[in-house]
Amino acid sequence: MIHVIASDLDHTLLRENHALSKETAKVLTHLHDQGLKVILASGRPVPGLTDLNAQLGLMQPEDYSIYLNGALVLNNRTGYEIYSRTLTAETLEAVGQFAQQEAIPVEYISADTVYSTTDFGRSSYSTFAPKGMKFSYVKQAEFFPRKPIYKIGFANEPLRIDALQATIKMLNVSVTRSRREFLELMPLGVNKAVGLEKVVHQLGYNAQQVMAFGDEENDLEMLRYAGVSIAVANAQTKVKAVARYITDTNEVDGVAQFLKSWFSTLS
């Protein structure tokens, strides 16, 4: 029996305007009210989930969210941290050197702030970053983080990101993408499945009692972990290949459609 529903946000749960449809909100709220745990699992930092958790009423004592591709897991109500992994100073220095060699801007992302380097101009990240993020623009040589850094990003055209992804794994980090034009680095071994497993264990459930939805490369491990895995129709081919089921696209509420077909209480 499914007790936990975990879902990616952008291009999965949310429509292309980055909004949650009334139908999807209604379905998730109903299931949450029935006692199922609804967990938002995103590459976004904390401000990117705040409004959505409030909109869905995910503010009960045992409600949690997975941020920054699994590098940070917090209780929605109290902010209590049940898991976190940060990038080391050595890794930050190595990535900075790599960015200088590649002549490309880099985003150092804390729980609530993006430190964006401007040595080679400003990147496009601010054009698609979640609402509520605070940006601090710095030169690489002036970057001395006062907050823990959970994730690093490179925003560029997809072909440039392809080339970066092929070479950056030598830095001994976890590498993924949440969209074709954004490369993301986390501490080695970090992914959404790691964060989700921490929540599931905290709640007293197991992987077979989890249903997960996704569309992109950074959802792969989470879909492999879940007992029931679903990709939206607009997902990357490699994501569809690991999912047990395929539902409709995010633009026509594919997640809500699948949930209504699965749970009898919604019929």
From TrEMBL:
GO cellular component: cytosol
Pfam families on file: Hydrolase_3 (PF08282)
CDD domains tied to this protein: HAD_Pase (cd07516)
Entry's Gene Ontology molecular function annotations: magnesium ion binding; phosphatase activity
SUPFAM superfamilies with a match to the protein in the record: HAD-like (SSF56784)
UniProt cross-references to PANTHER family, sorted A to Z: HAD SUPERFAMILY HYDROLASE-LIKE, TYPE 3, PHOSPHOSERINE PHOSPHATASE
Record-given protein name: HAD family phosphatase
Lineage: Bacteria, Bacillati, Bacillota, Bacilli, Lactobacillales
